[in-house]
Amino acid sequence: MAKKETFETSMTELEEIVGKLEAGDVTLDESLELFEKGVKLVKSCRNKLDEAEKKVKILTAGSDGDMVEKDFGDAE
Q: What pTM, to 2 d.p., does this model score?
Protein backbone atom coordinates (compact mmCIF):
# COMPACT_ATOMS: atom_id res chain seq x y z
CA MET A 1 0.00 0.00 0.00
CA ALA A 2 1.46 3.36 -1.06
CA LYS A 3 1.94 6.04 1.55
CA LYS A 4 -0.38 8.99 0.90
CA GLU A 5 1.56 12.23 0.83
CA THR A 6 0.29 15.05 2.97
CA PHE A 7 0.08 18.66 1.86
CA GLU A 8 3.01 19.47 4.15
CA THR A 9 5.29 16.75 2.78
CA SER A 10 4.44 17.80 -0.78
CA MET A 11 5.25 21.42 0.03
CA THR A 12 8.55 20.45 1.66
CA GLU A 13 9.51 18.41 -1.39
CA LEU A 14 8.50 21.27 -3.67
CA GLU A 15 10.67 23.70 -1.67
CA GLU A 16 13.62 21.32 -2.01
CA ILE A 17 13.11 21.12 -5.76
CA VAL A 18 12.95 24.90 -6.06
CA GLY A 19 16.16 25.18 -4.04
CA LYS A 20 17.98 22.75 -6.32
CA LEU A 21 16.76 24.53 -9.44
CA GLU A 22 17.71 27.96 -8.06
CA ALA A 23 21.18 26.72 -7.11
CA GLY A 24 21.79 25.73 -10.72
CA ASP A 25 23.96 22.75 -9.76
CA VAL A 26 21.98 20.20 -11.78
CA THR A 27 22.19 19.20 -15.41
CA LEU A 28 19.57 20.20 -17.95
CA ASP A 29 18.06 16.70 -17.90
CA GLU A 30 17.91 16.73 -14.09
CA SER A 31 16.39 20.21 -14.18
CA LEU A 32 13.65 19.05 -16.53
CA GLU A 33 12.90 16.03 -14.33
CA LEU A 34 12.78 18.22 -11.23
CA PHE A 35 10.58 20.75 -12.99
CA GLU A 36 8.16 18.02 -14.11
CA LYS A 37 7.98 16.61 -10.59
CA GLY A 38 7.46 20.14 -9.24
CA VAL A 39 4.53 20.73 -11.59
CA LYS A 40 2.92 17.49 -10.39
CA LEU A 41 3.45 18.52 -6.76
CA VAL A 42 1.91 21.95 -7.39
CA LYS A 43 -1.16 20.31 -8.96
CA SER A 44 -1.41 17.89 -6.04
CA CYS A 45 -1.15 20.72 -3.49
CA ARG A 46 -3.74 22.76 -5.37
CA ASN A 47 -6.14 19.81 -5.39
CA LYS A 48 -5.65 19.29 -1.66
CA LEU A 49 -6.32 22.97 -1.00
CA ASP A 50 -9.45 22.86 -3.17
CA GLU A 51 -10.70 19.82 -1.24
CA ALA A 52 -10.01 21.52 2.07
CA GLU A 53 -11.84 24.68 0.98
CA LYS A 54 -14.91 22.62 0.08
CA LYS A 55 -14.93 21.11 3.58
CA VAL A 56 -14.54 24.37 5.45
CA LYS A 57 -17.75 25.76 6.88
CA ILE A 58 -18.13 29.01 8.70
CA LEU A 59 -20.68 29.20 11.47
CA THR A 60 -22.45 32.51 11.71
CA ALA A 61 -25.35 33.68 13.78
CA GLY A 62 -28.59 33.81 11.82
CA SER A 63 -31.27 36.47 12.26
CA ASP A 64 -32.98 34.33 14.91
CA GLY A 65 -29.76 33.86 16.89
CA ASP A 66 -29.29 30.23 15.87
CA MET A 67 -26.04 29.13 14.27
CA VAL A 68 -26.16 28.78 10.50
CA GLU A 69 -23.62 26.95 8.35
CA LYS A 70 -22.38 28.72 5.26
CA ASP A 71 -19.94 27.53 2.64
CA PHE A 72 -16.50 29.09 2.91
CA GLY A 73 -16.96 31.06 -0.32
CA ASP A 74 -20.27 32.54 0.90
CA ALA A 75 -18.70 34.19 3.97
CA GLU A 76 -18.18 37.53 2.28
A: 0.69
Arithmetic mean of pLDDT, 29-58 = 90
14 domain residue, yes or no: yes
Residue 17: how many other CB atoms lie within 10 Å: 21
Over residues 40-53, the pLDDT tens digits come to 999 999 999 988 87
Amino acid occupying residue 58: I
Helix (H) or strand (E) holding 48: helix 28-55
Q: How far apart are CA 26 and CA 64, in angstroms?
A: 63
Residue 64 is assigned to a structural domain of this protein:
yes
User: What whole-number distance in Å separates Cα of residue 30 and Cα of residue 58?
Assistant: 44
Quote helix, strand, coil % in the chain, to nearest 5.
Answer: 65, 15, 25
